[in-house]
Amino acid sequence: MQAEVDGKIIQLSEAGWLENLNEWSVDLAHAIAKNEKVELTDEHWDIINEARDFFQETGKVCEPRAFSKIMKKKYGKDRSDSKYIYSLFPYGLIKSANKIGGLPRPKGCS
Fold this sequence. Notes:
It is built from five helices and two strands, in the order ββααααα. With 110 residues, it is mostly helical. The chain has a single domain (2-100), classed as DsrC protein, C-terminal domain (Arc Repressor Mutant, subunit A, Orthogonal Bundle), CATH 1.10.10.370. Strand 1 (2-5) and strand 2 (8-11) form a beta hairpin.
């Protein structure tokens, strides 16, 4: 699978995950989001940026329960539970938000 961004072909896995994490960009995030049937808003970007920040600080993808705690601390109860995240990303944090954010595919995630 591939995505074209600014005339450049970016390689994605069969499931749409970024092959080379260094190629991630905001424009690529929009292309992946389109494949995921997600129209990105500021609320989506809050989640994507928090997930990317966690990955950059720890070198690993944040688990949903721990991620909810991070979101609750920064954005409050209404913007932290799994119901809220699924309302923005129909396939959830791991399968959708992390994919759009250019993060690695967690083990066991298709």
